[in-house]
Amino acid sequence: MDPWVSLFSGGKDSSWALYQAIEQKRPIERLVTVHPTSESFMYHMPATELAELAAESIGIPLVDVYPTDFEATAESDETAGERGDRELEPLEEALAALADELGSIGGVTAGAVESSYQTDRIQRMCDRLGAELFAPLWQREPRALIDSMLDAGFEITIVRVAADGLGESWLGRTIDHEAVRELEALNETHGVHILGEGGEFETLVTDGPHMKRPIELDGEAAFDGIRGTFQITDAQLGDPTET
Question: Which terminus of the chain faces fewer neighbouring Cβ atoms within 10 Å, N or C?
Answer without folding.
Answer: C
